[in-house]
């Protein structure tokens, strides 16, 4: 039976929800816009990652496709998305990177009850920011995301961006067995306490090694999103000079990436502008060379034989319009610090989780392998989880994140975007706002945000094995 959830809320929960609704209302256009009605269904399906002649792989998918349908929304327009659960287990949907009311954030136990098999949940929000976002489960995240549940969501700018085409690449990493099926072994000790479940096949929009057709002289906006469980990517566009115009949905100073490599951690998005100046009929590889000695061809830009679209490069400005992000007041900021701890170190020891050094089998059977400030929160969300810190609504938070581990962690904040200020004491260029910040081993990153969105919010590593094994916490805005 399908029905919408209605459940009893505490007085604090009611006040938080009401405040969140007020925030959402404040971001709507002056004239009421028609509600954009959408519907998606999570259910088992089949995919052919190697093309129509390749083996069929059993997956879990939104609306039967890998990835799920692209949801194209408009900035400030209210949307109502009904999610149907056709799985045999609970699920939710997290609208990754969108600043929305807390009750719509999709964390089971923390912001909503899980969607039971055969039931529906209705998500309602008005996206305040234009940009590139994505959606995925936040229930049994490792297994559900690892079986394919992910989709892109774009919020269109009020005025069209001056490009010839708007392209989207959702990048997914799969660990496949010899028969082409998704390999078992989710949540292994090694994955949980080391680099996570890195796969052996990568797809763009559900296909591997397919050419990307382009035309000489055109300018494209390419939206890249990494929906992998753990794989970090560093993309090189041979013979081309991509210009980064947005990170995690938020516009930044247009700039070329350092060393020409676009580094995308799990959950990150990067929008680039690509002026296609290759010769008609030429082919140019896109290489992922993040891991030493393991570079591979992700895809090929295949120019058609038509004459160039224009004789000279497009001269329209590259900068995207700014989003209405509140500006932190660093002179009156509340300072908070989180310290990332744990993981396997030299000799196979577990580093300081809950004061236990190398005791037991970290990461096994849902056990903790990681901690934030000495506390491990395992799984996807937890009712009654005490917040690590509490902020008053409207306060500026100066947040320092310290990585004391030997591993990389893309740290994701729910409900906000972070103004990244410095890394290891050096100012960060290009005015970046991010909801997912990649931290190298021993990194210290300083960032800031305005706590204008009330509720209990997750802050966790988006290497999903790490999240499930304890690298997750909650903070509260009242």
TrEMBL record:
<dbReference type="InterPro" id="IPR002355">
    <property type="entry name" value="Cu_oxidase_Cu_BS"/>
</dbReference>
<protein>
    <submittedName>
        <fullName>Multicopper oxidase, type 3</fullName>
    </submittedName>
</protein>
<dbReference type="GO" id="GO:0005507">
    <property type="term" value="F:copper ion binding"/>
</dbReference>
<dbReference type="InterPro" id="IPR011707">
    <property type="entry name" value="Cu-oxidase-like_N"/>
</dbReference>
<dbReference type="GO" id="GO:0016491">
    <property type="term" value="F:oxidoreductase activity"/>
</dbReference>
<dbReference type="InterPro" id="IPR006311">
    <property type="entry name" value="TAT_signal"/>
</dbReference>
<dbReference type="InterPro" id="IPR033138">
    <property type="entry name" value="Cu_oxidase_CS"/>
</dbReference>
<dbReference type="Pfam" id="PF07731">
    <property type="entry name" value="Cu-oxidase_2"/>
</dbReference>
<dbReference type="InterPro" id="IPR011706">
    <property type="entry name" value="Cu-oxidase_C"/>
</dbReference>
<dbReference type="Pfam" id="PF07732">
    <property type="entry name" value="Cu-oxidase_3"/>
</dbReference>
<dbReference type="Pfam" id="PF00394">
    <property type="entry name" value="Cu-oxidase"/>
</dbReference>
<dbReference type="InterPro" id="IPR008972">
    <property type="entry name" value="Cupredoxin"/>
</dbReference>
<keyword id="KW-0479">Metal-binding</keyword>
<feature type="domain" description="Plastocyanin-like">
    <location>
        <begin position="385"/>
        <end position="477"/>
    </location>
</feature>
<feature type="domain" description="Plastocyanin-like">
    <location>
        <begin position="54"/>
        <end position="158"/>
    </location>
</feature>
<dbReference type="InterPro" id="IPR001117">
    <property type="entry name" value="Cu-oxidase_2nd"/>
</dbReference>
<keyword id="KW-0560">Oxidoreductase</keyword>
<dbReference type="InterPro" id="IPR045087">
    <property type="entry name" value="Cu-oxidase_fam"/>
</dbReference>
<dbReference type="GO" id="GO:0030288">
    <property type="term" value="C:outer membrane-bounded periplasmic space"/>
</dbReference>
<feature type="domain" description="Plastocyanin-like">
    <location>
        <begin position="168"/>
        <end position="281"/>
    </location>
</feature>
């Amino acid at each position: 039976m399908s029905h919408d959830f209605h459940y009893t809320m505490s007085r604090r929960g009611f006040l938080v929800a009401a405040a969140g609704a007020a925030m959402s209302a404040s971001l709507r256009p002056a004239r009421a816009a028609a509600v954009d009605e959408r519907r998606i269904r999570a259910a088992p399906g089949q995919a052919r990652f190697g093309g129509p002649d390749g083996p069929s792989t059993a997956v879990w998918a939104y609306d039967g496709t890998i990835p799920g349908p692209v949801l194209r929304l408009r900035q400030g327009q209210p949307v109502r998305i009904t999610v149907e659960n056709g799985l045999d287990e609970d699920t939710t949907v997290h609208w990754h990177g969108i600043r929305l009311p807390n009750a719509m954030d999709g964390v089971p136990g923390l912001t909503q009850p899980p969607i039971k098999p055969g039931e529906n949940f209705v998500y309602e929000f008005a996206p305040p920011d234009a940009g590139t976002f994505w959606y995925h489960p936040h229930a049994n995240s490792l297994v559900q995301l690892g079986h394919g549940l992910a989709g892109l969501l774009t919020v269109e700018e009020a005025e069209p961006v001056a490009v010839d085409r708007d392209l989207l690449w959702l990048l997914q990493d799969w660990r496949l067995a010899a028969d082409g099926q998704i390999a078992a072994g989710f949540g292994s000790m090694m994955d949980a306490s080391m680099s996570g479940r890195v796969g052996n096949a990568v797809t763009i929009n559900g296909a591997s090694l397919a050419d990307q057709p382009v035309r000489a002289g055109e300018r494209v906006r390419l939206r890249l999103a990494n929906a992998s469980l753990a794989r970090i990517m560093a993309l090189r566009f041979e013979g081309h000079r991509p210009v980064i115009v947005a990170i995690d949905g938020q516009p930044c100073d247009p700039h070329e990436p350092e060393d020409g490599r676009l580094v995308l951690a799990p959950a990150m998005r990067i929008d680039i502008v690509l002026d296609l100046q290759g010769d008609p009929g030429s082919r140019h590889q896109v290489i992922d060379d993040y891991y030493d000695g393991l570079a591979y061809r992700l895809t090929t830009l295949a120019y058609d034989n038509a004459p160039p679209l224009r004789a000279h490069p497009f001269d329209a400005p590259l900068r995207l319009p700014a989003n209405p992000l509140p500006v932190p007041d660093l002179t009156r900021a509340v300072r908070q610090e989180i310290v990332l701890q744990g993981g396997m170190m030299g000799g196979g020891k577990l580093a300081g989780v809950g004061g236990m050094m190398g005791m037991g089998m970290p990461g096994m059977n849902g056990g903790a392998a990681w901690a934030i400030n000495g506390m491990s929160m395992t799984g996807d969300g937890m009712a009654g989880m005490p917040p690590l810190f509490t902020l008053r609504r409207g306060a500026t938070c100066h947040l320092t994140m310290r990585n004391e581990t030997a591993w990389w962690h893309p740290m994701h904040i729910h409900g906000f975007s972070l103004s990244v200020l410095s890394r290891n004491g050096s100012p960060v260029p290009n005015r970046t706002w991010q909801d997912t910040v990649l931290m190298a081993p021993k990194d210290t990153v300083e960032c800031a945000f305005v706590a204008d969105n009330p509720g209990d919010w997750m802050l966790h590593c988006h290497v999903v094995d790490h999240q499930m094994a304890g690298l997750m916490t909650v903070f509260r805005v009242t």
